[in-house]
Amino acid sequence: MKISIKILGTGCPKCKALEKLTKEVLTENSYDAEISKVEDIVQIMNYGVIGTPALVLNEKVLVSGRVPSKDEIKRLIEKYMNI
């Protein structure tokens, strides 16, 4: 099952760090996922996110306002992929 992942953020260092870590987790584990970056502040606000960066899996905001560890990102992805 392909999972949809979105990184919400305007391009700050923390947003870039979250994107980098997420891509590393996807590559290291060969997950079937589509990743995209949302930088438009209006679109970010539509998710109800006040603090960026935010990690969205299948249109559900799971983390906002901080950069999770690679292990946490992996656990969240696995939960949504039902591995």
Description:
The protein is an alpha+beta fold. The protein has one domain (3-81): 3-Layer(aba) Sandwich (Glutaredoxin). It contains 3 helices and 4 strands, in the order E-H-E-H-E-E-H. It has helices at 13-29, 41-46, 70-81, and strands at 3-8, 33-38, 54-57, 60-64. A 4-stranded mixed sheet has the order 2-1-3-4. Helix 1 (13-29) links the parallel strand 1 (3-8) and strand 2 (33-38). It is globular and about 30 Å long. The model has no long low-confidence stretch (mean pLDDT 93).
Can you lay out the helices and strands and say which pair or pack?
Blueprint: E1 3-8, H1 13-29, E2 33-38, H2 41-46, E3 54-57, E4 60-64, H3 70-81
Parallel strand pairs: 1-2
Antiparallel strand pairs: 1-3, 3-4
- The CATH class name reads Alpha Beta
Helix content: 40-55%
Count of separate DSSP helical elements? 3
Q: What would the CATH topology be? A: Glutaredoxin
Indicate the structural class.
alpha+beta
CATH superfamily: Glutaredoxin
**CATH architectural arrangement:** 3-Layer(aba) Sandwich
Radius of gyration: 12 Å
In angstroms, what separates the terminal alpha carbons? 10 Å
Question: What is the strand content?
Answer: 25-35%
